[in-house]
């Protein structure tokens, strides 16, 4: 209980309006955000001007530009709210102090990082080994709420397909 209170005391609550940016390229990500309520995405803009979503976060998930946050270097990603959201932000320096003071915090944050790395590995493998329809089915099987909370264009980008193709997949599923 004391450890939980110590951890929670380090978070700063923040209300984020739809489309509001938490992180943008060129600026260091000084915090990571726990989504208390809402939906956010981390994305980049490619050379053709298309948004490429690489991370989604809904209630009880974490989000930041992990490379920027971890190495305290300028971000390459945007992190923006997809709907009005409430997040709890943990400052990089506060996290480092927590980890230095108590090995249990070090373990907690290491486990978060390991799970995030494992998930990203599964996503990369799926991109090589699965069809677009299989990737969509897999996402729905593991995270059914995403399809109701995340706009079609963002979900399509996350799955590396066009919104039109995702619409066809959805239409096919409704009619089968």
What does this protein structure show overall?
The protein has helices spanning 2-8, 66-71, 92-101, 103-129, 132-142, 146-149, 152-158, 163-174, and strands at 11-16, 21-23, 31-37, 39-45, 51-58, 62-63, 78-81, 85-91. The model has no long low-confidence stretch (mean pLDDT 95). A 4-stranded antiparallel sheet has the order 1-8-3-6. Strands 2-7-4-5 form a 4-stranded antiparallel sheet. The protein has a domain at 2-91: Jelly Rolls. By secondary structure, the chain is an alpha+beta fold.
Summary, kept brief:
With 176 residues, the protein is of the alpha+beta class. Helices cover 48% and strands 25% of the residues.
The CATH fourth-level homologous superfamily of the domain at 2-91? Jelly Rolls
- Mean pLDDT over the residues: 95
Helix content: 40-55%
Strand content: 25-35%
Order of helices and strands: HEEEEEEHEEHHHHHH
Q: Characterize the biggest β-sheet.
A: 4 strands, antiparallel
- The shape is globular
Under CATH, the topology of the domain at 2-91 can be stated as: Jelly Rolls
**Which regions contain 5 or more consecutive residues with pLDDT less than 50?**
none
* Helix/strand class: alpha+beta
């Amino acid at each position: 209980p004391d450890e939980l209170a110590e951890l929670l005391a380090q978070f700063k609550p923040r209300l984020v309006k739809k489309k509001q940016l938490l992180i943008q390229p060129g600026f260091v990500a000084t915090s990571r955000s726990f989504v208390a309520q809402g939906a956010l995405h981390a994305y980049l803009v490619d050379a053709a001007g298309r948004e490429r979503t690489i991370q989604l976060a809904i209630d009880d998930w974490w989000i930041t530009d992990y490379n920027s946050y971890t190495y305290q270097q300028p971000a390459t990603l945007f992190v923006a709210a997809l709907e009005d959201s409430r997040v709890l932000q943990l400052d990089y320096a506060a996290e480092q102090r927590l980890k230095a003071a108590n090995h249990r915090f070090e373990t907690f944050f290491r486990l978060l990082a390991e799970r995030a790395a494992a998930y990203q590995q599964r996503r990369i493998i799926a991109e090589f080994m699965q069809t677009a329809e299989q990737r969509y089915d897999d996402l729905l099987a593991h995270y059914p709420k995403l399809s109701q909370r995340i706009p079609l264009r963002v979900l399509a980008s996350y799955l590396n397909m066009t919104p039109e193709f995702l619409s066809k997949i959805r239409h096919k599923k409704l009619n089968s």
